[in-house]
Queue: 2 jobs
Job 1
Amino acid sequence: MALNLLMLGPPGAGKGTQAERFAKERRIPKISTGDILREAVATKTEVGQRAKAIMDRGELVSDEVMIGIVRERLERPDAVSGFVLDGFPRTVAQAAALDRIMAERDPLIVVDIVVPEDELVRRLGTRSICRLCGTGASVGSTVGAACGKCGGRLVQRTDDNQAVVLERLKVYHRQSEPLVEYYRVRPTFRSIDGAQPPDRVAADLAAAIAAAGNGAAGVQG
Ligand code: AP5
Ligand code: MG
């Protein structure tokens, strides 16, 4: 059975950190819509040029654009035997579209990473990413240091200033949090405590996925 994993959680919950780690371990692609958009911005594609201002305000890019990007990505051969989705879906319309895309495929395993709001604000206020390769630096890295992967300088993400972080959290509560209720009724839904050290979160994530996988097997009969 393909491992089709979807990570839910507010900005700063650790979706990207855990998705990267898990995808590497299981050798499946990590599909992060934030990373895809940041790359489109950096390479100045048409989508990137339109998305930049929206992202810098902390708002959401349109469902139509995002669904198109994800549909195309999930159809590529490397995603057939599984994937980790990070940052999509973010609206109920995106979730409904994903259900249509996945209709003939193995069930989605959905893990919601729960972290208190003050911790999210703290994390985003201190996060650094690489200016060159865009990689999120490891926990505790600081702006100005060198990227562990490529040596590029670590900088603050353009949407991590305080005003935009607060807007992103508002947008999350309004548009993305309803997804928890959307998925909670499924036997393949789990939620984990993201306010622990990364290794503990990773261990809980692996356990949640194993348990949710049993739920999925039940669904398939
Ligand atoms: P996106 O890039 O997805 O940003 P986000 O949802 O705001 O989430 P973040 O990447 O900020 O947080 P994360 O959960 O990945 O946390 P991370 O692991 O980095 O989206 C950016 C923008 O793109 C959106 O605002 C929107 O405009 C657009 N967009 C993207 N997808 C879209 C969609 N589907 N529809 C419409 N628009 C879309 O961790 C955060 C920090 O905490 C890091 O510094 C990390 O080192 C640290 N950390 C991680 N885990 C721990 C831990 N356990 N303990 C302590 N620190 C930790
Ligand atoms: Mg992220």
Job 2
Amino acid sequence: MKCRRCREPAVIELRRHNAGFCRECFLHHTREQVRKAVDDFDMLAPGDRVLVAVSGGKDSLALWDILLDLGYAVDGLYLGLGIGEYSGESGGYARAFATRRNARLIEIDIPVEFGFDIPTGAKAAKRAPCSACGLSKRHLFNQAAVEGGYDVVATGHNLDDEAAVLFGNTLRWNVDFLSRQRPVLPAESGFVKKVKPLVRLGEREMAAYCVLTGIDYIVEECPMAVGNKHLGYKEALNAIEEHSPGAKAAFYFEFLDKAAHRFEPAAVGDAEVELRPCASCGAPTSGDVCAFCKLVVRATS
Ligand code: Q46
Ligand code: ZN
């Protein structure tokens, strides 16, 4: 197979694009997909200060690398979740990448700063680990971005992730979540703008990008993810994609194009919730104390 762009021998085939690429042209393709997502959805403006949520996995490290190559001012934020060896190892990859690119990595260690790790804290608070983890991530990324004066938080969710979440929310017609499933969430009262610049790239493309550029990343999934529904949805979509290349991208992008607006809060008749500062940390919340501060209390008492 030959590279679609330069006719040299291809190193990767992308069935969805019905094309093969050599190393250089594949890296060009990857950067162009990010550039296109950023432009199409107005994700970043020139001069924006961007904070990338870095897990040490392929997606977030590749995203950081590509945004730096595209000329954006990007720092990384790594959260220590206290998930055994997984956390120790993933932090090592994040630090090694920051050193390699001479980039700034901010670190927040939840056990050190808040006195609990995700697995035991979640148990004490009677929450599923991923629910306690997701809540902590959203809170701490936003807080770090506000305090650090960043304009945007960027996460490494790729097309496979977004299609799987959409699949799960569609199976249960979870209209509340469908209304928020967009590649850009604009800034609003106390919340920094959030963007997902990898939505045009699949999992396999991100792994190939890291291998071809020599970025070391943690290959193991978080042990808490084993057997969760999200992985099941990914497998189901992969089986469909196998028979109809491009089905995953069509499912997600046609949703954004044709259906997402139907789930806007106004379209479903939801009243806007009024937000006020959390009595404990100042983060915007609908109650007196925000969900993260409640979690910290329950996880440590
Ligand atoms: S890190 Fe956290 Fe994920 Fe691990 S505990 Fe669940 S949410 S699976 S992306
Ligand atoms: Zn709070």
